[in-house]
Amino acid sequence: MDKLAQLKGIRSGISGVCLFFAIFLNFLPPIIMQARMNTIIKTKTPAVPVASANPTLFADSADQIKKYKELLDMGAITQEEFDQKKTQLLGL
Length: 92
Prior knowledge:
By secondary structure, the protein is mainly alpha-helical. It has five helices and no strands. The protein has helices spanning 2-7, 14-24, 28-42, 55-74, 79-90. Helix 2 (14-24) runs antiparallel to helix 3 (28-42) and helix 4 packs antiparallel against helix 5 (79-90). It is rod-shaped.
């Protein structure tokens, strides 16, 4: 759940809290987790590309965009194809 929240740009660290409460107040973690899931679902994806959350993935995307730019410069693909691929790689 924390990973899903992180992908949506929400700060979350309820795993440890839920584990603690599961030991003493076993009815509380499902309530906490449901509230967090509701927040995650209602939150729109951040405008920042997901690739920027992972530097390696971003570097791979940048390399691929560079290759597509070279293909565009050679005339192997059109500007529309380049723009479409760039948008796809950046996760926009």
